[in-house]
Specification:
Layout lengths: L5 H14 L4 E2 L5 H9 L3 E7 L5 E9 L1 H17 L1 H34 L1
Length: 117
């Protein structure tokens, strides 16, 4: 199984913050991404830095409005990136192309039919 993408990790962190009833400590593997979201104002929370200024712990209080907007955007992008969604888009495009070509030929036929009459 493939490891989750950064986008999928952001979605997971944002969803956890959106559904949390109380503040919680972030898992060590998510501290850097959570710190970025907190620094960007997407999450309410606190970040603790180590002695060289790198985040080593974070606590999330909740999600902000801009965080909810980001979550919605990332979920749409994730859905669009799935192969099934992509295939559906290509099939729709092909069907519209065929329908356009058939319509054009029908118009040409009708024009010739009525013009010859």
């Amino acid at each position: 199984m493939k490891p989750p993408t950064t986008r999928q990790n952001y979605i997971r962190i944002l969803k956890a913050a959106a559904s949390a009833k109380t503040s919680y400590q972030v898992d060590p593997g998510d501290v850097v991404l959570a710190a970025q979201l907190i620094d960007d104002g997407r999450l309410d929370g606190k970040v603790a830095d180590n002695n060289v200024g790198k985040p080593f712990a974070a606590a999330i209080i909740g999600i902000t409005f801009s965080g909810q907007q980001l979550l919605d955007q990332l979920e749409r992008e994730e859905l669009d990136a799935k192969p099934a969604t992509s295939a559906k888009k290509h099939i729709k495009s092909a069907l519209f192309f065929v329908a356009g070509a058939v319509t054009l030929e029908l118009i040409k036929f009708l024009f010739r039919f009525f013009a010859s009459g």
